[in-house]
Amino acid sequence: MAETKSTATVKPSTSVQAKKSGNSISWVAPLVCVLAGFFIWRVILGNASNFARPGTGWFWPDHSGAKNSLYNMYLGGIIVPILLGCFLTVLTFIIERFLTISKATGTGSNADFIRKVQYHLANKNVDAAVAECDKQQGSVGNVMKAGLHRYKEMINNTELDTDQKVMAIQKEVEEATALELPMLEKNLVFLSTIASVATLLGLLGTVLGMIRSFSALGEGDGGSGAAGKLSQGISEALYNTALGIGTSAFSIIFYNIFTTRIDGITYGIDESGFTLTQSFASLYK
Question: Using one digit for the tens of pLDDT, what is the confidence trace for 243-252?
Fold first, then answer.
């Protein structure tokens, strides 16, 4: 029993261990994006030259009379820069996930890659199968390569029976998979969270804007001028809703795209593990 455990121990040949890189982007990016959102809202949209009646103050000048409908977004209130930060955060993680998942997909079709490996294993040419992994790369290639290293070791092992060898190969594949999957799913939580929170933030900004509008209406002397001011205030407040819903929709779409691609990679990983164990069990009884 002691020899069996020793043979199933994870070897340094599991190449995916090198994937354990830092994740500083997960806390730096949202902070930078919110600051960038405030910069866009305050400096670009809230520039005094964009308004007919510029206000005073540094943090939140009370401008009015926007010269362009785009600048009305500034009048949506303090929630707007937060929503802009959320949108920039979504863009950041979409780019980051796209690059990571594209690399994890490999250089070619995973289905074709697995068929080539099956062909080489059927001909008992493990080195050629490992060479295919080096060409394919990606998560499926990394897991397959880790399994093939253990596969090759088990061929020459005379101390274990076939079932124990198959279990050793399967364990190597499972441990390599456990190192790959977190890398694929990392940072997707930001997209799923913002998809839910952005809409609520948009509604909050709209409610706060309408409160300000009705408060200004109550302090006025009524009449058509007050009604026009109320209408303008409501339209400005609705920028929050539009920005929140747009950010949420954008986040949901790409979250679903990425999870679909990850499911495809996961299926390829599962198929690669099945290929190795079944091949060994049938060829080396």
Answer: 999 999 999 9
pTM score, whole prediction? 0.81
Given the structure tokens 């029976």, which residue do they identify?
161
Q: Where are the alpha helices (DSSP H) in 186-222?
A: 188-219
∠ CA 220-222-228, rounded to 5° = 90
CA distance 232 to 69: 11
Cβ within 8 Å of residue 23, ≥6 positions away: 186, 187
Q: Which residues of 3-39 are buried (b: 16+ CB within 10 A; e: fewer)?
A: eeeebbeeeebbbbeebeeeeebeeebbeebbebbbe
DSSP labels for 34-84? Answer: HHHHHHIIIIIIT-GGGEEE----SSS---EEESSGGGGGGGG-THHHHHH
Q: How far apart are the C-alpha atoms of 249 and 198, rounded to whole Å?
A: 9
**Within 10 A of 2 (CB to CB), how many other CB atoms are there?**
5
Helical packing angle, 25-39 and 79-105, nearest 10°: 140
